[in-house]
Task: structure prediction
Amino acid sequence: MKSPTTDAAPPGLAALATELGEALSVIAFRRVQARGELPVYTWFSPAAKRFLGVDSETTAPQGVLAAVHWADRDGLAESIQASAERLDISTETFRVVTPSGVVVWLEGMARPQAMPDGAVVWEGIWVDVSEGKRALQRLDLILGHASDGIILIDEEGKIQLVNLAAEELFGYAPGELLGQPVECLMEGQDRKNHHAYIRNYLNTGVSAKLGRGSRELTARRKNGSAFLIDLSVSEVRSEGKRYFIAIGRDISQRKATEAKLEFLAYHDVLTGLSNLSRFREFFETLLASRRETGLALNLLSLGIDGFSFINTTLGHHVGDAVLKSIALRLVTLAGPEAMVARVGGDRFLALLPDMAPGRLISDRVERISRGMKEPLSSEGQEFELSASIGVAVWPRDADGAETLIRYSEAALEHAKAIGPGTVHIFTRELGEKGAKALSLQSRIRRAIENQEFTAHYQPQVDLQTKAIVGMEALVRWFTPEGPISPVEFIPVAEEFGLIDPISEVVVLAVCRQLKDWRAKGIAIVPVAVNISWRQFRNPRRLLASLDEALTATGIDPAFLEIELTESSAMQDIASAIATIRMLNERGLSCAIDDFGTGYSSLSALKRFPIRKLKVDRSFVIDIDNDPNDAAIVNAIIAMAHALKLKVVAEGVETQSHLDYLRSLKCDQMQGYLFSPPLAAEKIEGFLKEGKRLEG
Ligand code: C2E
Ligand code: MG
Ligand code: MG
Result:
């Protein structure tokens, strides 16, 4: 039986429901539970049709509606029952399956009223909250699966919500962080100041950290250990309250990788020293601050002498180990304030900033040079090494780091050319020369490939018989822009290791020419070739090419003579003597060229197994005017004769030169007076006609 109070639409709700119509996702309802019976629905607003498949004013089935999702039925029934007993407002949240098969979340409340007959009547509404529910579900999903730690804190700084990733990140058990002050996750200053910081923000609205993107800070795990996180914090407002959402991730790993990459970008992997980029940066920064004090700096470019030998004979494994030991030693020798870098195979740079005031070259330079000569043990072996060192001085030589590095390298090249273990200080001529030399060397390489080098010949005449008794072969390089003098390109070829191929061209050309003349029945004379000190020091290639040229052409070695300048012979007397001996064994005789310019000691000269001295042109040029030059040439000739050497005067240009030399008993002459160096065809004419000295 239905009473009017329980059947009719509740006036307020009915009006509201009609007004809102069916479109709205609100269902108003009346529910009645007679004493001892199950609840029935006596009235629904129109929207019920859409959600529940029931008509308004239709009596609903007993108990929980059929449309309610099975999983929520028990919960809903219990909630209704409790409300009936205690007459409390019933809050109801449940899913229904709509007639169209969609699951919808309804949430609402119903106010119970006790009737005189013992029945309970509820009037209530349910609202479709699917959107919100889904959003929440999605939030749960996001929180649960996010790899970043997410923490929501309230205005008090208490943790209100935390996801699994955050709990794991900070080492807490699930739920353990809820309600905790967020400071427990912080370190140092942040930990101390955080509370005051939030208060200040809430009062003033000023914040340095909020919403400014992510920043790095140190966080603290439950076990007290610290780690780096990347954190961004933003503010959200909900129901008039402010919350702060912090999203963070552990970046220790990334930081470590970054640090490693940075190290690799700026260091040499083998030795751990800085590389060129880091060195340059350091240098430039240092210069910027040095400009105020003006205190000098030394930049050293070092090359380990003969290092490639270790690599090729003992292998790269040993080479690497030796390099590491060298690096270590260099760092120690350079001192704590120095910057040392490895810039290539066996090349190092060292910047010495600790200069005594007023000094240009640091004492350390000498100490480093000496220290690098000390025996070095590595891989169970002892190595006797040395470093060639080039030094550039700031601010004397240049102002820029880049230029100074280049200058120190030019000085190093020069040091290397002088010999192992040499220190060479940069000079301005070296800088200008360096630039020219570099462009010249590439032209020389091309000229070698294109066989542009040829030989010219200058006769040597006996002062007594006036006949041609010998010749000197001089290399010639004719380019479309005109001839380039050997004075210019020979030193560059020496410096860049190009002298051997040039020399080979000359030697072979001479031997072929002699063979050709002999074949024509021309009486040949010995021809001298000039050999560089570089070839003398390491004579294997020289000897091989001489052997090859002589064998190939069948020329008697007695017709080939070797000229070695005095200065190069005196550089390393022992090895020069050894090389001359080897040449003599092959039947080749040697002459010392440009004599008088190298200040040789007589005793040294005595030891050289040579046949001839060539007096340098500079003494001949003024021999008839300058008594000093005359005296020197006189002494040289007397001494040479005492040692049973023949003397050739170079650069004889005038009859007066010739007369004077004859009076000093000079043996032979070479010079423009008789003939300049000429192409083979011209010389051939001289030989054929038996040209003689006239004066
Ligand atoms: P050098 O061996 O002392 O050669 C003599 C130089 O004096 C030659 O210069 C020659 O042309 C020049 N000369 C000869 N007579 C006179 C004269 O009467 N007056 C003047 N003013 N000069 C005279 P060049 O050909 O320019 O060669 C210069 C230097 O280049 C040579 O000096 C030699 O040291 C070097 N050189 C030449 N050819 C070769 C070569 O094939 N190999 C090597 N390693 N060095 C070479
Ligand atoms: Mg010569
Ligand atoms: Mg000479």
Summary: The longest strand covers residues 226-238. Residues 619 and 629 are 5 Å apart (CA to CA).
